Amino acid sequence: MLEPEPKSLRPGCCPRRYGHGGETEVPAESARSADCLAGDGASRPAAHRLRSGESQLKQRTGRFATRTVYPARPVLEHVHRPRLRACTGQNGGVDLVDPRIEQYAEAHTTPPPPLLAELAAETHATLASPEMLTGTVVGRLLELLVHGSGAKRVLEIGTFSGYSALAMAAGLPPDGHIDTCEVDPVHAEVARRYIARSPYADRITLHLGPALETIAALAGDFDFVFIDADKPNYANYLEAVLPRLTRHGLIAVDNTLWSGAVLDPLDDSARAIVELNDRLVVDERVTVAQLTVRDGLTLIRRA
Ligand SMILES: C[S@@+](CC[C@H](N)C(=O)[O-])C[C@H]1O[C@@H](n2cnc3c(N)ncnc32)[C@H](O)[C@@H]1O
After folding, report:
1. What is the dihedral of CA 276, 283, 143, 188, to 10 degrees?
2. Cβ neighbours for 104, distance < 8 A, ≥ 6 positions apart
3. What's the CA gap between 296 and 236, in Å, rounded?
4. What pLDDT does residue 93 have?
5. What is the reported pLDDT for 94?
6. Which class is domain 99-302?
7. Which of the ends of the chain has fewer CB neighbours closer than 10 A, N or C?
């Protein structure tokens, strides 16, 4: 069993999805509407919160209620990292995308099949940190990336309850396969149940144990890798899989904006993500695109 950790420190947990000191509740009406905006039919308790001090960083605009302004400051030679004290909480946190736009994007994304909707509902009802589940938009994006790249061999680092593995499986050809790594037996039990009920039971193998050990024990190369586990190990995961990425392979790394905490990294996970992002953009071995979808998704190919 994993040692229970404070929520903000739990591997794979995104900081702003959990409450922190220094947050200020928005009026009830706004909170209700934000609850309606939460994805996968479940509420995200912290999603509607504004941090105290945040208002000073926002400007009124015509079309949307607020716009965050980041004073520019060059940090690394090739990296422009705006410096912003986005909030006064333990970790930084901003809305990466206006919640109404997120709602619009989800409403215009092909809904998940009933089994995935059921899995999302059970995850939110029974597991701790349910916001770790990727959800509709990133789930469909992963499916499209797997399908469009023609990937046959997929590696996932961080199964949780199995949502993203099942989403990617929908993009696989019949002879494709996903190896997915999970260290927590409670998460693995839920994932295995849903994988068994899915049409892809023969295409997904769940490996229970630390991902780095699993990767070392697996043979062969990968066409598509989804990295979505403990953030301090992200750089290790990248080094473990990059030499084993096929010529047209892709790596997708989740949570690479860490709810905006990359602007002011205050904990180990945020610092690990910032270091990785800064290294990747100057790494001549790869070509990267940092997307602002959901919590930040970085796409990588070998240069
Ligand atoms: C963000 S969640 C994954 C979410 C999942 N990809 C999805 O979209 O539904 C991260 C998962 O990684 C697992 N994890 C954390 N450290 C790990 C490790 N060292 N090896 C394997 N899994 C790990 C956690 O138990 C958690 O279930």
Report:
1. -40
2. none
3. 19
4. 67
5. 80
6. alpha beta
7. N
